Amino acid sequence: MNAIIAILSSVISIVASWTRKKATWPLRVIHTVRLTVQQVRAGNRSVLDLAKTALGTGSALAVLAVLMFPLYWIFAASLSAGTGLMSTDGLFADPTTYNLDAYRWVLFESPFVDALRNSLVVVFVTVSVSMSVVIPGAYALSRHEFRGRKKILYGYVLFTQVGAGLSIATLIALYVLFNSVGLSNNLLVLGLFYAAGAVPFNTWLLKTFMDNIPVSYEEAAVIDGAGRWQVIREVILPLSKPGIAVVLVFTFLAGWNEFIVARTLLRPENYTLSVELYALATAGQYDTPWTQFSAFAMLFAMPVALIYFFAQSYVESGLSFGGMEG
């Protein structure tokens, strides 16, 4: 129970930190601009250096614009009248004809709300079960020597590397097995399956983060009188926040985006958002309602974009966590 409470408190603190940091980004931009102007006036930075920075920033923005163009196209299509991705007047429809009819249809007439509920159930099971296994498992593999430890690590690597090659055979066997025991249309079982698939890679990943936390920190806490759970809660988990954030994002995506297994095991009343999106694209015999499809796709992708936006700083620090010095 103490471990579960510690994990939940750590996740809550991560979300709170994301919110605080992202809410202050306009102030940080203003501060950076003012600091740059002061440095130029004081002669600490030359105009040439500033021009190079501006050129590099402009180039990065140009690349970003190219990468974001498909997203803008889909968004524009979701607001346009009609059902096509392109207008008769060009690639984009006349902005004066933009409307929210497609979003109203998705929210009030399509199965979006039911599919959203199904996806949230699957994601909740996936994240809660995988995190409750990944965090203690990564700590045990990082800090303790026990019989079979190396075999477990090699097994995790094996499941991580060969899973894609066995995907078709695994899918057939999974479908037969779940049908035989009557679990082929169960959201909780699907979430457990996703969690099981997410555990090996994410445990290995989080273990590498914890390996870089100096053992001397734990020893100092023990000398100060901290118990085992106190060391984990006050030393290991706070220092592992970047790794936990990365693992949290990966496990969320494992339950939110997966399509093939969900399409195979679920029936229409339990379809998740990814399956409903595919069903919408293939519903028409001769034509696809691209406007409604675009609106559905935008709403489906929004939680992923928000998570990446809020978790960006933690993910970046998590990817460089191996450079921590003892």
From TrEMBL:
<keyword id="KW-0472">Membrane</keyword>
<keyword id="KW-0762">Sugar transport</keyword>
<keyword id="KW-0813">Transport</keyword>
<comment type="similarity">
    <text>Belongs to the binding-protein-dependent transport system permease family. MalFG subfamily.</text>
</comment>
<dbReference type="InterPro" id="IPR035906">
    <property type="entry name" value="MetI-like_sf"/>
</dbReference>
<feature type="transmembrane region" description="Helical">
    <location>
        <begin position="187"/>
        <end position="206"/>
    </location>
</feature>
<dbReference type="GO" id="GO:0055085">
    <property type="term" value="P:transmembrane transport"/>
</dbReference>
<feature type="domain" description="ABC transmembrane type-1">
    <location>
        <begin position="116"/>
        <end position="311"/>
    </location>
</feature>
<feature type="transmembrane region" description="Helical">
    <location>
        <begin position="54"/>
        <end position="75"/>
    </location>
</feature>
<dbReference type="InterPro" id="IPR000515">
    <property type="entry name" value="MetI-like"/>
</dbReference>
<feature type="transmembrane region" description="Helical">
    <location>
        <begin position="153"/>
        <end position="175"/>
    </location>
</feature>
<dbReference type="GO" id="GO:0005886">
    <property type="term" value="C:plasma membrane"/>
</dbReference>
<keyword id="KW-1003">Cell membrane</keyword>
<keyword id="KW-1133">Transmembrane helix</keyword>
<feature type="transmembrane region" description="Helical">
    <location>
        <begin position="120"/>
        <end position="141"/>
    </location>
</feature>
<protein>
    <submittedName>
        <fullName>Binding-protein-dependent transport system inner membrane protein</fullName>
    </submittedName>
</protein>
<dbReference type="Pfam" id="PF00528">
    <property type="entry name" value="BPD_transp_1"/>
</dbReference>
<dbReference type="InterPro" id="IPR050901">
    <property type="entry name" value="BP-dep_ABC_trans_perm"/>
</dbReference>
<keyword id="KW-0812">Transmembrane</keyword>
<feature type="transmembrane region" description="Helical">
    <location>
        <begin position="293"/>
        <end position="311"/>
    </location>
</feature>
